[in-house]
Amino acid sequence: MSRSPLIELALIFLKLGTVAFGGPAAHIAMMRSEFVERRQWLTEAEFLDLVGASSLIPGPSSTEVAIFIGQRRAGWVGLLLAGLFFILPAALIVTAIAWVYVRFGHLPQAAGILYGIKPVIIAVVAQALWTLGRTALKTRLLAVLGAVGLMLCFLGVPPLVLLFGTGSLLGVRGWLRDEPVRTVKPLLALAVVVALLVSMPLVFTALQPSVSHTVGLSPLFLVFAKIGSVVFGSGYVLLVFLRADLVTRLHWLTSAQLLDAVAVGQFTPGPVFTTATFIGYLLAGPWGALAATLGIFLPAFLFVAVSGPLIPRIRQSPTAAAFLDGVNAASLALMAFVTWQLGRAALVDVVTVVLALVAAIVLFRWKVNSVWLVLGGAAVGLLLH
Q1: At what angle do helices 111-136 and 140-154 cross, to 10 degrees?
Q2: What pTM was estimated for this model as a whole?
Q3: Which of residues 350 and 334 earns the better pLDDT score?
């Protein structure tokens, strides 16, 4: 791979990381637009497998999709570049906000920008759901499972139960119907991924510090590495783990500081896990921000590095392929549920409804790059606030 494609890869993810507001579902929708529609680096089916795989491993799912894409495009170097440049804008922005917070004692306001961006994000995710759904829900059974999965989301079923349950159901069906005895290697590949998921949190847990009121860079790194290796789901799940370790066990933060940190992760672009960057800065300045950021994102790079090359092999087994199909259907159900939740928070008046409708029409009719729509929404929000 020549230097020019690597620079292109880095610049694309730098751009996405700068404008990727709206949480993982929105980030994934923007990546689909960029890499499936515009650049055709992946097919819809290949992209769906990466989304499904990222849903099954701990860590920030949209960042893991970015790392998967980088690995597919340019190997180990691409893996590092895609992840680092997707994370970098958010980490820098959050560090600047943390400096303001430490110096002046309050968070800067971003209400106007978010007011205009959130409705546009709803349209972006809706278009991605429509297009991915036509690929993922390729049989009547998968469509039914997707619909049932969406209903279970509204009933409060945990995401992991939904993902593994749907995947296992179709995996057992694939085994009973199609699986030859000789196709052992793809199943072993799946077993390797599962073993990694179990072992990595145990390693970081064993290395992390016991109860201590002293904050050091090494303990800070290990605490966040352990959290990054076990957290599935949204920023709200992250909040639970952060509170248990940093407030209750180690007493490094107050509850008020933790809530401010999570708020910063929510209203800045890029992965919500940059909450760790904010906390690291509060506890140990710029070097603490770096240690916490490296710690919480390192497991995602390791998980993808191991599982990425195995996904095509897993697809060779009818059982494992059926498992992935079920996971993909459940992932779409989760994205649809998150979109519903985002919509309730974003579409608050006539202006936001109009913004969402106009963005949807532009996307479906003219296939405009979603980055421009996000920037346009931000401009409208600033003008109105």
Answers
A1: 150
A2: 0.82
A3: 350
